[in-house]
MarR family transcriptional regulator
Amino acid sequence: MATAPNIRRPDALTLEVVELIGDVVARFYEDYEEAAGEHALTGAQARLLSMLSLEPLPMRKLAQKLKCEPSNVTGIVDRLEARGLVERRPDPADRRVKLAAATEEGSRVARELRDGLRFAREPLAGLTDEERLSLRDLLRRMLTT
Amino acid sequence: MATAPNIRRPDALTLEVVELIGDVVARFYEDYEEAAGEHALTGAQARLLSMLSLEPLPMRKLAQKLKCEPSNVTGIVDRLEARGLVERRPDPADRRVKLAAATEEGSRVARELRDGLRFAREPLAGLTDEERLSLRDLLRRMLTT
DNA sequence: TATTGTTATACTCTATAACTATA
DNA sequence: TATAGTTATAGAGTATAACAATA
């Protein structure tokens, strides 16, 4: 039964796991978009706000993290700023840089957003500690490959 | 007791696993968008085309599967049809319905797209059969919770 | 009357290129 | 000259509402 993994032609088990991962990805995304929508945020706005709730970041850095062009960040921050969730601050060290930062209200929304994510939390509650440890290690290994 | 009734606060391990799942989701999405881009397809176009590569579907059904409004499907199918990857066919049973179907070329592109997905396949090659079985069971349980 | 697909409209996200103000 | 952020532009996805053809 212990057939060696064939890289060129994935075996049935690998294909099944790939499909399961696809299902998890779909569920996670739906859940995220739904949680964002409950706060009248788009997915991009929610992701950017979540980043800023940890620490203020230059526009350039936000573009790198969101994997989009810096010009797009301008608009997303504009809309969040218009709602009072984010503000632009000067960077004392470099006057070219603008630091985007979550306001108090923005941090509150980001926290509610995180707490509103049901999937990837509720399902995990059905697993034992040992199983969660096992899952953690497997996911870690996948991400470092 | 003055304690609030059973508010679940995820432990550190659960939070770590949630974050790891988020990382996997991000990696999977990047990989999918990249694979789509290599065929000059957007993510939505690639997802729709992949669905049609299995079987022709009514526009309405596509909207349900993509979780978007039917009016959006019109445009996505329009663009795929303009490139000869998809075609609209009448439904003999109901003249209101239009069946979207992948052309031969469309099926070929969908196949290449699927084969081009590196993540969720290469990382799995680094796991043993036993580990993949374990991962499969854990993911299954998460999805049925 | 209800349903299917489309059109029209408006908003957001996206990449590209040109611009400004700093460095 | 190079970099950070912005603006302008165009294409794509999205939801909403109104519409024609068909059931």
Observations:
- Residues 25-144 of chain B form a domain with the Arc Repressor Mutant, subunit A fold (CATH 1.10.10.10).
- Residues 42-45, 68-69, 71-72, 75-76, 79, 94-97 of chain B lie near DNA strand D (CB under 10 Å from a C1').
